[in-house]
Amino acid sequence: MDGFSIKTAKELYGIDSWGAGYFDIDSKGYLSAMPTKNVKSSIPLTQVLKEAQKKNISTPILLRFPQILHGQVQAINNAFATAIKEYKYKNQYTPAYPIKVNQKKSVVDAIMEAGYSNSINIEVGSKAEAVASFALKLNKKAMTICNGFKDKDYYNIMATGEKLGRNMLAVIEKPFELDGLLQLKKEKKAIPSLGFRIKLDAKGSGMWQKSGGSASKFGLSMSQLLQAIEWLKKHDLIEHLKMFHFHIGSQITDIRKIKQAIREAARVYAKCKKIGLDLEFLNVGGGLGIDYDGSKTSSDASVNYGVQEYANDVVYNVLEICNDEQVSHPQLISESGRFLTAYHAVLLVDVRDQYHERYINPPKFKKQESKIIQDILYIDENMTAKNFREFYHDSLVKKDELQAMFHLGLLSIEDRSKGEWLFWAIAEKAVKYSQNAKYIADEFVELREHLYEKVVCNFSLFQSLPDHWALDQLFPIMPISHLQKKPTQKATLVDITCDSDGEVDKFVDLKDIKSYLDIHQIDDYKDYHLAFLFVGAYQDTMGDMHNLFGEVNELSVTINKDNTMKIDQIYEGEKIKDTIAIFDYFPEKIINNLKNKNLTEKDESDLKKDILNYCNMYTYLMD
Ligand code: PLP
């Protein structure tokens, strides 16, 4: 026995710290999901995968758990209700879902359904999102908050929304947007309620902190705010102004930054209320973060607070400032997209291969090898804990010699391959010896990283994990089975795009950022799958079509009280014909080209069938 247990596996992957009560390792060593926190039912992801395979749905598969979306809506509503009660806040809170965080209709529908009775609002940031929002079922009281820069058409869309019975609210991001309101007035169209996005001095923290502070792209400075108020008064539109809004960035890692921003915004709100504005809402934007690595710190992949502390701080600070200024408490709104969506989606990928020189079968050495091979063999056989550093350096010289001899035509390809195989064996030994040394020299730290397996996984980083590629954002990643056994391999994950950037080489860790993932060494990786967790926020919408790998297969899964599961919806991933069509390649045109090729009728018909068949294939690797 190696002393490895489920408990050790939980510690190794940190799941108790980041699992958020939604994910755990079960007693058989499977990663399991518990989408309903209150009713403790759970399902191993391997079981979901098996059900999918029965329906011929192959990996990569994105699993969506609508029950998690419900749970998150409930969690934020409960947190604010608790805070409002505790501090005796004299108004209410309603969330707004910022649709840009994940526009998938099924996702938005689940959120809207969960928040319906609490009049959850929707936030849109463009004309397209505004039009899409008309398809959603909103409570009569709910607002459609329209952020983003606005032109005449955007205002017309809002006027249509009003006609459809929606409560449209335009958040003015920049002074130039005001003019569009005059057009509506002139054309006697409905004027939406208005909000001002205020540019705060306060900044966020973490990777998206540029969204806040005085140099941010959005919002009205204090003088612009006053001028805009005058402008509204002058044009008899001031009674439409109902909301102040701010957003200092997504994934705010440090609660102090949130407090500062709230206090500043509440002060601006209260001062404007005092000069007679009929404001009703204070919208604190997004930024409520997720603890991706479970460290509960202000590092980029974490947050040093939870949803209850966030709600307490919003409620308490607004209350204190409003009491101080003797104005009534505003209705509170937050646009917490990441918090609502991140947990609900899990990407399952299959592991295809691992490639490292030393996993190729060892070569057979002859009694009489060439001199260079003999020299390298000597280093390999005689390396010890005392001489490993010197012998490793010798092997580097021999490796250069080996290459030079090959380039000069003095060495056979067999000898070159033997020498290279030996070099990697020596490197591995040297790394092992270096781990026991008091001080690990940088060169061995680097060498160790170089020796990690690169396992090929069937996915595209650019399509499924764009924020890891663009921003090094970390996501919890782990195997979904074999977790009762000790993982003995350290690996980075390479995707199947033809791009060397397509690699995950940073992983969550409680104390650090890991440069490898612990995976199991097994002979056949056919049934070995990895889960990329918390990919429900922003990844769907930001993903791109690099190498024409398209959207992946999707399943929406619910779990019953008796631990059985139901696949509610299957959304087939994009086929080759779908991804090529985006760039103007069409099956019919490809088939038309066959006509000029002087083919027999039979060949032409067979090729036509082949091409149509290819066009209907999933873009990812299949068995
Ligand atoms: N509101 C606005 C105006 C935003 O720009 C964003 C995203 O950056 C959000 C809300 C959502 O933020 P988060 O996902 O951090 O809650």
Catalogue the unreliable spans: none
Number of helices: 22
Helix/strand-derived class?
alpha/beta
How much of the residues is beta strand, in percent?
15-25%
Mean pLDDT: 94
Main beta-sheet annotation: 10 strands, mixed
Associated small molecules: pyridoxal-5'-phosphate
Percent helix, as a range, is 25-40%
Query: Termini, distance in Å?
Result: 35 Å
Query: How many individual β-strands?
Result: 23
> Nearest-angstrom radius of gyration?
29 Å
Q: What is the overall shape?
A: globular
Brief description of this entry?
This protein is of the alpha/beta class and 623 residues long. The strands form four sheets. Strands 4, 13, 14, 15, 16, 17, 20, 21, 22 and 23 form a ten-stranded mixed sheet that branches. Residues 98, 101, 123, 147, 247, 250-251, 285-288, 335-339, 537 line the site of pyridoxal-5'-phosphate (PLP).
Provide structural commentary.
- Helices cover about 40% and strands about 15% of the residues.
- Helix 4 runs parallel beside helix 5 (about 105-115).
- The protein is built from 22 helices and 23 strands.
- The protein is globular, with a radius of gyration of 29 Å.
- The model has no long low-confidence stretch (mean pLDDT about 95).
- The longest helix is centred in the C-terminal third of the chain and has 23 residues, at about 415-435.
- By secondary structure, it is of the alpha/beta class.
- Strands 4, 13, 14, 15, 16, 17, 20, 21, 22 and 23 form a 10-stranded mixed β-sheet that branches.
- The chain binds pyridoxal-5'-phosphate.
- Pyridoxal-5'-phosphate (PLP) binds near residues 147, 247, 285 and 537.
